[in-house]
């Protein structure tokens, strides 16, 4: 099965489900190194995305991601809203009008998303942010794209993002609220890296 607008809508639907299911976990991750709202922010944002999709069903995957970007920017707030908004907007632009997304286009859309997060938030790898999930995901997706199998690209990205989220545990935060804690940020997992891994895992489920 190729990746089309139905895949994109399933991706967003499964992302919304994941944000609802993991709402408390994301809140608890944001408690020691933030302000305990990441789960609430993401759940609210993706619930709004589902309403928008029901109101104005998108005709292409790119349109679905653009609508997601606009909605997350206006509903999520905080640091994550503009970061995810930029990520989805850049990914939408990379997909363009494509009706059937191939492996190379998919990998470049993930790269565009990551580059958007970096352009907006100026975090580098190792700063203990969502970039630490996205950068390994993008690298794994690019490596997997050679086989021209979208499922492999999706699976590689999700797996790398999950490992990337775990890798934030020993990091000292240098961006966002967690950076105010300095050394005390060490030993906690970054909530945005975890939500990013959940969203990339949802993309796999949507293609099954
Ligand atoms: P806020 O910190 O405003 O309450 P959230 O709790 O929703 O916003 O999101 C926090 C997440 O945002 C962090 O876990 C981190 O992954 C991400 N984040 C914060 N600042 C940056 C940044 N400059 N670059 C990349 N990601 C960031
Ligand atoms: Mg927060
Ligand atoms: Mg906040």
Automatic annotation (TrEMBL):
It is an enzyme of class 2 (transferase). Keywords: Kinase, Transferase. Transmembrane segments: none annotated. Its EC number is 2.7.1.-. PROSITE patterns: DHAL. It holds the Pfam family Dak2. It comes from the Bacteria. InterPro entries: DhaK_L_YcgS, DhaL_dom, DhaL_dom_sf, Dihydroxyacetone_Kinase. Residues 6-205 form the DhaL domain. GO terms for molecular function: transferase activity. This is Dihydroxyacetone kinase-like protein.
